[in-house]
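Okay, is this right?
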Amino acid sequence: MIYIRSFLFNVLFVIYLFTIMTFALPILIFDRSYAFKLAHIWAKGSFILLKYIVGIEVEFRGVEHIPKGPCIIASKHQSVWETFALTIFFDDFTFILKRELTRIPLFGYYLIKTEQIAINRDNGRESLKEIAQKSRAIFNQGRQLIIFPEGTRRAAGAPPDYKSGAAFIYSQNHVPCVPVALNSGLFWPRHGFLKQRGKIIAQFLPPLPPDMKRDEFAQKIETIIETHTHALIDESLKAYPLARVNFIG
């Protein structure tokens, strides 16, 4: 049954996304707030599909730690799940993403409309300058930046591989940073087809103040995220032993 349920979810997940994007195309003539509302609808609808098709529930902890106004949301990245799930708490969010994503039919239109930060990752130092400039403009508008400090998805239990980008952005902008720990990779693996029954938990942790030294911030953010991610994984493996198939630690 897990194969059938996973296949059905994957098909409906894609159909659902492109259906709502197609019927909502007229909202692109209005301001970007309507596109963000559509993103919330997509996320919440996807939660329903997860629950009733593959048996994955969703829990958010520490939401009270999210500050008002501009901030960095620095999240562990194990799955596709967090790329849409975390957005439900923000009305004017921004991601840093590959420029190629803006060329995807329909989906790319919405990325452009919502003014996401699209960069060429091959440009190295020039990309960092672009990120610094655009992130400053984002925060000046009172928006939130969601970033994955490891840059790409890592399997649940894999050794951490934090890049310098999050610390660089933090050092260039006087805003707080909210670390996010999660266990999504246990149930929705980064490259796996099969979805395991269980509960995905995302935990928003107390924000780091905006005045830390860059090196201190880099060490702190990794320690906090990894410590709480390990705790969530341990908790989940006790409750859902079958999820161990996606754990590589």
Q: What stands out?
A: The chain has a mean pLDDT of 95.
